[in-house]
Amino acid sequence: MKEGDRLVCGDVTIDFLEVPGHSSCSIAAYVPDEKALFASDAAGVYYKNFVFAAGNSNYNLYQQSLQRMATYPVEVVLLEHYGAAVGEEARTFFSKAIEAAADTRAAVEKTYRLTGDVTQTAEAITRLVLARSPDYFLDKEILAMVIGQMVKFIVKAQEEKERSPSRKHEG
Questions:
Q1: How far apart are CA 122 and CA 151, in angstroms?
Q2: How many angstroms separate the CA atoms of 65 and 101, rounded?
Q3: 170 located within any domain
Q4: Contact criterion met (CB below 8 Å) for 59 and 150
Q5: pLDDT score recorded for residue 58
Q6: Which of 34, 59, 70, 71 is the most buried (most CB within 10 A)?
């Protein structure tokens, strides 16, 4: 399935959208009649009212995909891990996910400015995430790998932004 595809099964219509960022091929499925969005990991990992921003492929696209999914009217958001959000929880889910993604990006950028080291930054962010969810959330090694990928992307994007010619002419 790809962007714009529509599947009709009896009286159920499912629209597909490409929402890259968690992975380069992340997709979501939307059932308009039910206002249900099957978001996959493209929306992050939702655990006990905490959204872990899982933009490990391309963080910029991840944040754009969250903004895009937030435009859909939802009553149910079905997630890859730990179930679903329904009703008011679903309607506010994407604002929480967008905020979590922005906060994570800011934490990575701030920590990297302090450490100057990708590995130390990834370790610090991993500790922060584990502190927010002290019981089982994700395997620590998997979490560290995902965060390491996010840190590498965010640091590279920040360095490219700082080197861009338009940035040099600001101020």
A1: 6
A2: 11
A3: no
A4: yes
A5: 94
A6: 59
pLDDT digits (tens, 9 = 90+) for 110-163: 999 999 999 999 999 999 988 877 676 678 888 899 999 999 999 999 888 888
Query: What is the CATH number for 132?
Result: 3.60.15.10
Q: In this structure, are residues 22 and 42 in contact, taking their beta carbons and an 8 Å threshold?
A: yes
Residue 40 lies in a domain: yes
Query: How many domains are contained in the chain?
Result: 1
Give the amino acid at 151: V
pTM attached to this predicted model: 0.89
Q: Quick check: is 1 in a domain?
A: no
Burial class of 134 by CB neighbour count within 10 A (0 to 12, 13 to 18, 19+): exposed
**Residue 25 lies inside a defined structural domain of this protein:** yes
CB–CB of 37/28 below 8 Å? yes
DSSP 3-state of 127: helix
